[in-house]
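Structure first, sequence second, as always.
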């Protein structure tokens, strides 16, 4: 039965209310613990109403050490990695199915905790489910090769799990990021300690319970909660962690790389971006305008691959900018449970201050505010912000160089292909880029010159488990998902036998 909240008008399924009421736990060695070792807690807030959703125990260094010890014991005794591969694959398939079955209720969790619309939460759930299905498929596939050698010698390689993986994720796609971390780690036989972002701790618990019910043994996946400086810091400095998989800001990524160096812990880092979306003059501007708005305003711009720099051929600049502006202005900014919500709130007050701060900086530096720039009218509570566009942005401006992580688009203009490529690459990041043109030769030429881990041609934003993902330059180290996930979550062993 759904209960109607008088103030917001939303109908919250009872299963969701019950889940949130009991979500204040850590999961260590299969045990749900409602209290951290020192009794410390933090709260998570609904960014659309600013109401506290739940109080969560904050894992101390002692709790983290216990979680890592549980993951290490589970790795060492082989309760997961040595299980029949067919059984491991079938457990992951059960997870995939269970995510889909839970989608009506589970979608609510990230809508309440992060602010995104129910439509987006549901899409992410399906993507999370697909990720488990894809990685179930790699569990029992060949993992090594035989290397030709001289008579009397037999050389082969195998790929072994790395071991205990500390997995630290951000708040922009809470459930999907948990799936992107856990599914490959488990598929390749690792054990894990997962820490969601402190802004969005809830949905990972639902997933961890699904994993338990699907038959993943206790201790294989442990869930800790807490702020980065305390809980995350304890994870990245622990000597029994074999691998750190991190998605978040470039600043914290650098910090993690330094900490990892001390213990020579392996790392994959998926970090920030300032992705260029290059539009040549030979395209359908209506279609491109809609996609360019989507590229920047999707998920309130809280996306590492967001297309935050629109690079436009000078001769179509005015027409394209006016169409993208119309798309921005027609985006409905509303709490995520409204059916027509085009954009929900930002995740937190801190994020709202950050985005507003960048709007002030852009104005001070001389960029021209075309639309947005503040809170939308008629929303009294919540961290809402309008889709915002700055024109006349030059490469030296901070709005052209730094990641805002909000719905702020910077428009730059180019005269020819070489200038477009030079502008696109003129940032420290290299996560994603887009090219719009009907000239196939140009599409290939430009794609080959762009310094980005993912390049979209005549589309934007498609990202899923089948293709590898990661960044050039300051956008990260290593690749996740797709054919390269095996490198992130296994280590090769060479066996040379005298026969
Ligand atoms: P943002 O600035 O967008 O919140 P962060 O990079 O700070 O992104 O956070 C991403 C994740 O990294 C979160 O789970 C956060 O708790 C974690 N984190 C932040 N600081 C540290 C740290 N010193 N050590 C480990 N994890 C951290």
């Amino acid at each position: 039965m759904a209960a109607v909240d008088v103030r917001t008008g939303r109908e919250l399924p009872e299963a969701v209310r019950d889940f949130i009421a009991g979500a204040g736990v850590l999961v260590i060695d299969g045990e749900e613990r409602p209290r951290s070792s020192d009794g410390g807690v933090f709260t998570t807030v609904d960014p659309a109403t600013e109401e506290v959703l739940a109080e969560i125990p904050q894992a101390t260094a002692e709790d983290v050490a216990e979680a890592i010890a549980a993951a290490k014991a589970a790795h060492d005794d082989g309760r997961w990695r040595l299980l029949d591969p067919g059984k491991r694959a079938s457990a992951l398939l059960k997870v995939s199915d269970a995510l889909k079955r839970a989608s009506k209720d589970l979608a609510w969790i990230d809508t309440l905790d992060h602010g995104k619309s129910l439509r987006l939460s549901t899409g992410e759930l399906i993507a999370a489910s697909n990720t488990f299905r894809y990685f179930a498929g790699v569990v029992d596939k060949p993992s090594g090769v035989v290397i030709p050698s001289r008579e009397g010698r037999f050389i082969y390689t195998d790929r072994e799990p790395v071991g205990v993986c500390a997995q630290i994720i951000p708040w922009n796609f809470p459930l999907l990021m948990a799936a992107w971390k856990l599914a490959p780690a488990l598929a390749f036989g690792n054990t894990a300690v997962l820490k969601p972002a402190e802004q969005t701790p809830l949905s990972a618990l639902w997933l961890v319970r699904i994993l338990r019910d699907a038959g993943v043994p206790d201790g294989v996946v442990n869930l800790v909660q807490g702020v980065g400086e305390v809980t995350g810091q304890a994870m990245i400095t622990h000597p029994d962690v074999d691998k750190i998989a991190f998605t978040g800001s470039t600043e914290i990524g650098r910090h993690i790389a330094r900490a990892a160096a001390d213990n020579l812990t392996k790392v994959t880092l998926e970090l920030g971006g300032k992705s260029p979306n290059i539009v040549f003059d030979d395209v359908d501007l209506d279609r491109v305008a809609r996609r360019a708005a989507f590229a920047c305003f999707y998920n309130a711009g809280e996306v590492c691959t967001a297309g935050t720099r629109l690079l436009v051929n000078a001769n179509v600049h005015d027409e394209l900018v006016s169409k993208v502006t119309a798309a921005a202005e027609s985006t409905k900014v509303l709490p995520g449970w409204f059916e027509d919500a085009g954009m929900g709130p930002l995740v937190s007050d801190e994020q709202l201050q950050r985005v507003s701060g960048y709007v002030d900086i852009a104005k001070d530096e001389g960029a021209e505010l075309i639309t947005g720039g503040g809170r939308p009218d008629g929303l009294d509570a919540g961290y809402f912000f309008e889709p915002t566009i700055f024109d006349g942005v030059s490469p030296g401006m901070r709005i052209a160089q730094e990641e805002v992580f909000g719905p702020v688009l910077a428009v730059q203009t180019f005269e020819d292909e070489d200038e477009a490529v030079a502008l696109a690459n003129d940032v420290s990041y290299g996560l994603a880029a887009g090219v719009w043109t009907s000239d196939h030769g140009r599409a290939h030429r430009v794609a080959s010159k762009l310094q980005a881990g993912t390049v979209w041609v005549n589309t934007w934003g498609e990202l899923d488990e089948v293709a590898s993902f990661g960044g050039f330059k300051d956008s990260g180290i290593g690749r996740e998902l797709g054919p390269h996930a095996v490198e992130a979550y296994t280590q090769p062993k060479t066996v040379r036998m005298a026969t």
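Margin note: The radius of gyration is 23 Å.
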